[in-house]
Amino acid sequence: MIGIFVGLRCLTPPAVVSWAAYLHWLNLGASRLHFLAAKPVVAIFTIAALVELTADKLPSSPNRTAPLGLIARIILGMLCGACVAVAGHGILWAGALLGLAGALLGCFGGFMARTRLVKALGCPDYVIALLEDAVAIGGALFVVTRF
To answer: Please, which residues have CB within 8 angstroms of residue 135's CB and are 6 or more apart in sequence?
Structure first.
């Protein structure tokens, strides 16, 4: 599930995962992923997520399905999926693959849903973008608090 939310907002779920690791909601143990609990990493992801949440509303924002955004979603989806798998005593690579699949689903499904909702409701894009923000934040929080 965490990968789907990465597909919606590339940097917000990693910030939530990083905070969850820092607050010991996610136990990453002695895995290589433990670096996400470090204060500088939490700060970097938090700032990046806040910038993303603001920049997404700008008309000049690149499309999430563009190569750079898609690659970032794949990598961060895999990272978040691996973290959730490790915290749940699962297999790291399986979590990474599920995170990748979720990120692709969230990216393309979220793009289609957003564009269709804007057209169907006749509302400005930023209104649906704010709804998408809430889904990504709330969904990521839901996932990390299950441990």
So the answer is: 5, 8
Residue 61 CA, chain-centre distance (Å), reads 17
Which residue is listed with tokens 């564009």?
115
Tokens found for residue 109: 């499904």
Q: What are the pLDDT digits (tens) for 19-41?
A: 999 999 999 988 899 999 999 99
Task: Label residue 120 by pLDDT band (50, 70, 90).
Answer: very high
Taking the whole predicted model, whether its pTM rises above 0.90 is answered as: yes
Which residues does 73 contact at the CB level (< 8 Å), separation at least 6? 6, 7, 10, 64, 103, 104, 106, 107
Average pLDDT over residues 38-59: 95
Q: Can you tell me the distance from the alpha carbon of 70 to that of 61, in angstroms, rounded to the nearest whole number?
A: 14
How many CB atoms neighbour CB 34 within 10 A?
Answer: 14
Among 13, 12, 30, 7, residue whose Cα is nearest residue 92: 30
Contacts of 27 (CB under 8 A, 6+ apart): 87, 147
